[in-house]
Each structure stands twice: as C-alpha cells, then as structure tokens.
Amino acid sequence: MRLSRNRLASGAARVYVSIIRGTPLLVQLFVIFYGLPSIGLVIDPWPSAIIAFSLNVAGYAAEIIRAAILSVPKGQWEAGHTIGMSRTRTLRRIILPQAARVSVPPLSNTFISLVKDTSLASLILVTEMFRQAQEIAAFSQQFMMLYLEAALVYWVFCFVLSSGQSYLEKRLDRYVAH
Amino acid sequence: MSHIEPTPAAAGQDGNLLTVTGLSKAFGENVVLKSIDLSIRPGQVTALIGPSGSGKTTVLRCLNGLETPDGGIVSVAGGPTVDFGGKVRAKDLSDLRDQSAMVFQHYNLFPHMTVLENVIEGPIQVKKMRRADAIRDAESLLARVGLADKKDQYPFELSGGQQQRVGIVRALALKPALLLFDEPTSALDPELVGEVLGVIKELADEQWTMMIVTHELAFAREVADEVVFMDGGVVVECGHPDTVLRNPRQERTQRFVQRLLHPF
C-alpha cells in the first residue's frame, strides 16, 4: 500500500507501519486486552493475542516486502511492459518472484521473533507454553528445569524455521550468479 | 522459418507503417523532445543517431508507451492513432504499445526465468498462445540466433551477446509490427558486438521494420535505409545514410559524425 499511487492509501499505510514499529509489542498487547474494554470492547485473551501478533507482524512484513519490491530494477517493470503485460501482471509474474528472494532472510527473522514473542502473551493471561511452564514450576518448584525446557521448545521451533529459511534461500538462489 | 517472418505490415494510404507528428516531451523543466516528425515505411530500417541527451531514446520509449508524450500524434497503419495533445484512452495506449517491442540496452531479461521461459512469457501470458505452440516458435527463433542449446539456462549463465540475442528473440516472439532497439550493443564488450549486429542485419534482410538507436555509424550505413540525426530534442537532418553520414548538409551533423569517426 505504501507503494500505491493513491495518496490516501499510501499515507494510511505509512502511519500504520510507523505506529506498529514505533511501539513495543507488549504495549500493543496491553492496549488491546486491557485498554479496549474501557471503551466497551472486551476481547478474550486468546483472540487478543492473535489480533495483536497479526497486526504487529503485518506491519513489519509490509515494510520488508515494500523494500524487496523496490529492490527489483526498474528495467524489469519496463521489460514486462514491453511484452504487453499490465502493471498487475508484471508485479505478479516478474517483480514478486524476484522480490521473494530478497525478502526471505528478513521475513524469516520476523517470524522467528514472533515465535519467541508469543511468550509475552502470558502477560495477558493466555495460557501459552511459557505460562504453562510457570504454573507447573510454581507447583513443583522445579524452576530451572521447567524454564530450560521451555527454552528448548522455543529453540526447536526456531531451528525448524531457520532450516526452512535456508532451504528457501537455496531454492530461490538458483538463478543468481555465485 | 515462415512463422518468424515479419507480420505483413499494413501500410497506410501514405505508404507509411508509422507516422509521428509533433511529438514532444519534457521531464519537468527539461524539454527533451521539441516537436519531432518521423515516419517509417513497412520493411524500412531507421537509425536514430545523435549525441547523448539528444532525445533519441525518448522517441523510442514514447512509441512503446514507456513514456507518455506531452503532445503529438502517433499513428500506426492498421493500428491506433493516438493524439497525445488531448485526452488519451488507456485502450489506445495499450494498442499502440502492442504494435512494437523494445530491445533494451541492458537486455532486461527476466533473471528468474530460463531463456525459453523469457521468450514464451509474452506469447503465453499476453497473447494467450497455446504453450506448445509458443515453445515451438521460441525454439525455432532461438535456433535461428544460434542459442538452441541455451534454452534451459538462466540469463546469468550467458554472455552479454547471448543475453542480447535472447532479448531480440523475446521481442520477435511477440510478432510486433515495429521492432525498437535502444542502443542494443552499447553495454557489450567490443568482441561481442558483431554477433548482435549480425542478427539485426539478418532481420533487416527479412524485411522487419526497425528503429534503431545506435552509435555504430558503420553499421547504420550498411543496414539502415534512413538515418535520422537528432540533437537537442529536434531532428536536425534525415535522409539516406550515404548523405547523412558522408555528406551531411548541416554543420551540427558534420561535427557529430567527425567526432565519432575520429574520436581523438
């Protein structure tokens, strides 16, 4: 949207991205879960967390994809034009496949952060993994072991994501000189 | 080779395939084209020459819709007539664009597609050709420029000369009425220039209608039917290559030709 020729659309997108990136995720979670009820909008913990994380990741991903699209040389748009393609078709067939290659590393970082940031949802009473670890630890007094276990699970998730990232990068790099 | 023959181009009543009248274009304060008149007959090769900044590339880009002129009339026989002085309909613009195909100085091949995929993209996606037909045509065109064995390679695996030949084939595959070349050999190493010019010369022999922006005066003299010398956004002189390149009437043309023939 920030690439749109429509000023209203690009302006709205700019403000959105600026707010999302300029405020802590924890604050965004609290505004949605603890703040909105005061204006009459009560959302349960789980949906609150899902909304907050989605809005947050969307803001970051939008910036990454915008930068990736801009990194594709102008000549590629022109080549699409000269073979008779519309802007939309050029974007889909020519520009986005090339932008995808550039955006995989930063997008992966964003998703890895997201996995780890889900632990923040424990603070708005979502019984996600970390909160469960806390509850069991409080009951069993096995703090060290349970928190290390939780850490291990996060690490496994992130490891799987990084492996996916390497695979994608290799695949998308096949048409680039090394 | 019948299917790579140029589409029998319609000639207008005046015998021209393309007529440009009063074409003008400015980028902000910078006036690049001041009322250009040009015409080209079917099967004719026109070489546009002139110093950098003279506007010759902008002429090509206007014809292919990569720039929108501020004024002027572009008319293609059997195609649209577009008056840029008034309100221009999007449909006319895209019709005009479809009359021509551009070969770029920096090739602008699609790096994420193989050579074959580069060539069939337009015919399949835009012209809605059947895939098998598009591939058959593309393979025959590639064989024609000596690249049959490169069809499954990616552009980065090819030399500049090979990439530019793919660029030419990609344009040919659209069977345009008019081929536009924007300094097709300027980005090439000197030893690769010949293979690309050779292909263009063969297209000229096959009666393709072409407009070529070039600094290769020897090539222009051999291949072009008409040479147009531009400077400062106007056509200074145009005519038969022997006249314009050997015995130019205008002093500006003389100076330019001398500079290219004797750089130091």
Descriptive keywords:
heterodimer; A: 178 residues; B: 264 residues; alpha/beta; 6-stranded mixed sheet; 4-stranded antiparallel sheet
How would you explain this protein's 3D organization?
The complex is a heterodimer of chains A (178) and B (264). Chain A contains 7 helices and no strands. Chain A is mainly alpha-helical and 178 residues long. In chain A, α2 packs antiparallel against α3 (45-70). The mean pLDDT of chain A is 90. In chain B, the strands form 2 sheets. A 6-stranded mixed beta sheet of chain B has the order 6-7-8-3-9-10, with helices on both faces. A 4-stranded antiparallel beta sheet of chain B has the order 2-1-4-5, with helices on one face. The model of chain B has no long low-confidence stretch (mean pLDDT 92). With 264 residues, chain B is of the alpha/beta class. In chain B, 36% of the residues lie in helices and 23% in strands. Chain B has 9 helices and 10 strands. Chain B is globular, with a radius of gyration of 18 Å. At the A-B interface, α4 and α5 of A face α2 and α3 of B.
Unreliable segments of 5+ consecutive residues of chain A = none
| Number of distinct helices of chain A | 7
Summarize model confidence as the mean pLDDT of chain B: 92
Largest interface: A-B, 20 and 28 residues
Q: Helix-strand pattern of chain A, N to C?
A: HHHHHHH
Total of DSSP H or I helical runs spanning 4+ residues of chain B: 9
Structural class of chain A: mainly alpha
Radius of gyration of chain A: 21 Å
Number of strands of chain B: 10
C-alpha Rg of chain B, in Å?
A: 18 Å
Average pLDDT, all residues of chain A:
90
The fraction of residues in strands of chain A falls at under 5%
* Portion in helices of chain B: 25-40%
Biggest β-sheet: strands ordered side by side in the sheet of chain B? 6-7-8-3-9-10
Shape of chain B: globular
Shape of chain A: flat
- Helix percent band of chain A: over 70%
Structural class of chain B: alpha/beta
| Subunit organisation of the chains | heterodimer
